[in-house]
Amino acid sequence: MSKQFAVVGNPIEQSRSPELHHAFAAKTGIDLTYSKRLAPLDGFEANIQDFFAQGGIGMNVTVPFKEQAYAQCQVLTERARIAGAVNTLWMENGVLHGDNTDGQGLVEAIRALDWNLENTDILIIGAGGATRGVIYPLVQAGVKKIVIANRTLTRAEQLIADLKDAVPQAELQAIALTDLAGDFDIIINATSASLSGDALILPEALQFKHAYEMAYGKPSTFLDQARARGVPSAEGFGMLVGQAIESFSIWNGVKPQLKDFL
To answer: Which positions does UniProt annotate for shikimate binding (predicted)?
Structure first.
């Protein structure tokens, strides 16, 4: 019988996880079935309990349940603990384990583009959960300095206060979105500005060599501005594939190559 996996969220129809995991399985010769599970907003815990009670092996978690998944886990990886959110679940000896593979997915996506991360200065726009999840893996990959720009400065400052002890080898700095300036190796848009159609204006005082948009499949004013400057840029599909590969390898002990699926 094939191994059972799933992704849980609300909404869930848009998820591309099943096609990715089935593609990884075909490539690696693993027999698995990966399904989508819609959980009611007040029914997440029951949904995951039901899945594992029926012999499920591993589960991905998408919005809005990543913080709830974190709270349910008895064992957390270091990167999940620092992120404060979980997107990958599995049972070991009846104990629920959780990891967060989003940040590593971003690292792998950037490496697949052949952009250097070692000793780099990075600007991340936005101070929400997406940013919290990627700081530790970026620093582990060799990033030297991360500046977080946010509309509400206090939120960026709080994020840095929460994370600075976890990444003592890197310099973290918070700035207001209105103070965007400086020279960076990579800038990353972790806001929903592109999704909501809000114009995210990148001033001339802000210089950068590469631009990464975490969202994918939607028009992006952020990417438009990077392209207008002739800067190498990419949207977040690689990050999606990268985090899926990381989950797949945790569950199956085999790691497909990201470049095979881009």
So the answer is: 15-17, 62, 87, 102, 216, 243
Per the annotation, does 102 bind a ligand? yes
- How far is the CA of 76 from the CAs of 67, 82, 164, 191, 224, in angstroms? 12, 10, 19, 26, 38
Taking CA atoms, 171 is separated from 55, 149, 160, 185, in Å, by 44, 14, 10, 15
Taking domain 1-100+237-258, whether its CATH number is 3.30.465.10 is answered by no
SS3 176: strand
> Which residues does 24 contact at the CB level (< 8 Å), separation at least 6?
30, 244, 245, 248, 256, 261
CATH 3.40.50.720 segments of the chain? 115-230
Strand partners, 176: 150
Query: Phi and psi of 73, rounded to 5°?
Result: -80, 140
Give pLDDT tens digits for 34-73: 999 999 999 999 999 999 999 999 999 999 999 999 999 9
CA 83, 88, 63, 220: dihedral to nearest 10 degrees?
80
Asked if residue 91 belongs to a known ligand binding site, the reply is no
- Show the tokens assigned to 12: 């869930």
- Report helix, strand or coil for 185: strand
78 is known to lie in a ligand binding site: yes
Annotation says 36 is catalytic: no
Catalytic residue among 3, 27, 36, 66: 66
pLDDT tens for each residue of 121-172: 999 999 999 999 999 999 999 999 999 999 999 999 999 999 999 999 999 9
Report whether 81 belongs to an annotated binding site. Answer: no
The DSSP code for 217 is S
Is residue 121 a contact partner of residue 184, using CB atoms and an 8 Å limit? Answer: yes
